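Notes to self after the call with IL:
- keep both proteins in one doc
- input above output, always
- annotate only the second one for now

Protein 1:
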Amino acid sequence: MTKEITISLRNRILKFFYKFLIKPILFKFDPEEVHDHFIKIGKFLGSNKFTKYITFILFSYSNKKLTQKILNIEFKNPIGLGAGFDKDANLTQIISKIGFGFEEIGSITGEKCLGNEKPRLWRLKKSKSLLVYYGLKNDGAEMIYNRLKGKKFNIPIFTSIAKTNSQDTVSTENGIKDYVKAYEKLKEIGSVSVINISCPNAFGGQPFHDKKSLNHLIKEIKKIKTKKPIFIKISPDLTKKQVDDIIVLSLKYKISGIICSNLTKNRNNKKIIDENIPGVGGISGKVVQELSDNLVKYIYKKSKGRLIIIGLGGIFTAEDAYKKIRNGASLVQLVTGMIFQGPQTVAEINQGLGKLLEKDGFSNISEAIGVDVK
C-alpha cells in the first residue's frame, strides 16, 4: 500500500509540473519541432544505464494484475505507445522505462520517405486532439533494419509497415511490392508485424481497405515465412461492409489481430471543437475516441473473440483504457494523451487500471476483456 501511495504522489507532482510549467512552454512552439526535440532527448536517455535508471524511477509502475501472455508474448502491462511517435525506431531502449508495456514503431515503408510538406502537425487544443499530415515520414526499411538488428528489447516491439508515400506506389501491384519489401526486411525485428492499410495522408488514399486488393496484399505477405504474428491497422471511417470483409480475410489468412484505429478524416464529427482547422490530414485523440470504442466492440462481437484487438484512440485516463478493454481490446495504445498530459500518464493509467480491476473483482486484466459485449 505504501508503494501505491508513493507512486500516486509522484505522479501527481509530475502531472502538476507538466500541466502548469512544461506544457504551457511547449505548446508555444511548433508541434513538429517539439516532437523532434523530444525524440533527441529520448534517444539520449536510452543511451546509458544511468539515464535509463533515472527515467525508470520517475515514470515506471508495475502490477501483476496487468501482466498477460498473448500470442505467446509476455506483456508487463496493456499500455503501448502507438505508431507515429517513434517513426524511425530511435526510442526502443527507453520506452519501457517510461512504463509502456509494448511499442509500435513506424510506420516504416519500403523506401525512405520525406513525407508531406510542412506544416504537417497541428494541435487541436479544445478538441484534445492532433491533426496529423506527416505522410509516412520515415527513414525506410533498410536504414531502420540496420538501426535495430542485433538489439535486445525489454518489451515487445511491433514493426508497423506501410507503402511508401509516392506516386510510384499508387497502383495496387506497386503498392504491394513496396509493402512486401518492408515486410521482408523487417520480418525478424521485434515480436509482431503490423500491416498499416489506413494511413490517411499518402498518394492513392487507402486502397487496401477494398476486399480484393487486401486479399492480394495479405496473400503476398503470407508467402514470406516468419514466426511473427501479424496485425492489421484499420481506419475508423470504414463502412460495416468493409470491416466485415477485413474480419473475413483476417480469419481466412490467420491474421492474429486488428488495431482499432488509425486517424479519422471525417470532419463531420461533433467532437471537433476547434474552428478553422486545415482541410488536410487525419485527426487523433478525443475526436476519434468514440469511433474507436465502437469499432473495438463491433469487431470483438463479430469475430466472436477470435481476433486479438488493440484499442487506439482518445485514451487519456484509466477509464478510457478500461472501456476499450471491456469492449473487447486485449491491449491498448496511446500517443495524444501523453502529449497533452505528460509522460507520467502511462503510470497513471496503469495504476488506475489496477484499482478498477480490484473494484470489479478481477484478479487479472485478461478477465475484463469483452465483458461488456453481449
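Protein 2 (the one to annotate):
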Amino acid sequence: MPKYLDITGQRFGRLKAIEFAGYDKNKAVLWKCVCECENIVVVRSDHLRYGRISSCGCMKSEMSAKRGRDNAKHGMWNTRL
C-alpha cells in the first residue's frame, strides 16, 4: 500500500481529520473526520485536500434552507403554459 500523508488534526472547511481509516477498494487513503455539527464521516484524503468535500452534508441542507422559496421553480415543466 502507498504511504499516506498524515493530516491528523487539520481542518478542511467544516471537517477536521481525526484518524486514519484505511484504504478503499481503489487503494485511496480514507480518513475519519468529525464535522462542526458533530457528525462523523469517512472520506478520501484527496477529496479533502483538493476541496471537493468540506462538510458532512449539513452545509448543503443549510444553504438550501437559507435560499428558501426565492429560487423555487414553478414545477410546470411539461405543460403548455
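Annotation: The first strand starts at residue 11 and ends at 12. Helices lie at 45-49, 58-67.
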